[in-house]
């Protein structure tokens, strides 16, 4: 699993979604008690190795290790627990951050074929929740849980980034790639649908 985390990080870094040391990934190792492998803090995600991960508990604390987990490890654990996710991906792609800026009460997506890749039908109306940024993972976790919809495997954190989850890292990646496209479309066509002109 740790090698898989490194491979996925390298992929996202190449996309420009994990610049510098930003972003983090996790994968569930067991449910009872909950244990996740999460990327460590402060490592360039384009150069991360299989050794750059740490096992955390349900509170996001390292288990039997002096390695420092990502600062957002607690939110990863909360999402895994509440949503039943097998893997959680957090990146700093630009389109989700810009979308959250324009639609702070939630981003509505509808009538787009790419919604199928996100696990929804193209004619469904999907609202991607947006929460305010905080350095307190309990506060962020509470905000996530308050607006949690089991049908929407994503969360936008205003002026920060996006979290997407799935049964495993591959499903989470596919959902993230499709969601990033959907949000980029929403942002780039905003003026068309609001009647504004540049």
Outline the structure in words.
- This protein has 6 helices and 9 strands.
- With 198 residues, it is of the alpha+beta class.
- The strands form 2 sheets. A 7-stranded mixed beta sheet has the order 3-2-1-4-9-8-7, sandwiched between helices. A two-stranded antiparallel sheet has the order 5-6.
- Strand 8 and strand 9 form a beta hairpin.
- Helix 2 packs parallel to helix 4 and helix 3 packs across helix 5.
- The longest helix has 20 residues.
- The termini are far apart.
Brief write-up:
The chain is of the alpha+beta class.
Radius of gyration, CA atoms, in whole angstroms = 16 Å
Q: What form results from the Cα inertia axes?
A: globular
Binned, the helix content reads 25-40%
Query: Biggest sheet, in brief?
Result: 7 strands, mixed
Number of strands: 9
The fraction of residues in strands falls at 15-25%
Attribute tags:
two-stranded antiparallel sheet, alpha+beta, globular, seven-stranded mixed β-sheet, 9 strands, 198 residues, single chain
SSE topology sketch:
Blueprint: H1 2-15, E1 24-31, E2 34-39, E3 53-56, H2 73-83, E4 87-91, H3 94-102, E5 107-109, E6 126-128, E7 130-131, H4 137-146, E8 154-157, E9 161-166, H5 169-188, H6 190-194
Parallel strand pairs: 7-8
Antiparallel strand pairs: 1-2, 1-4, 2-3, 4-9, 5-6, 8-9
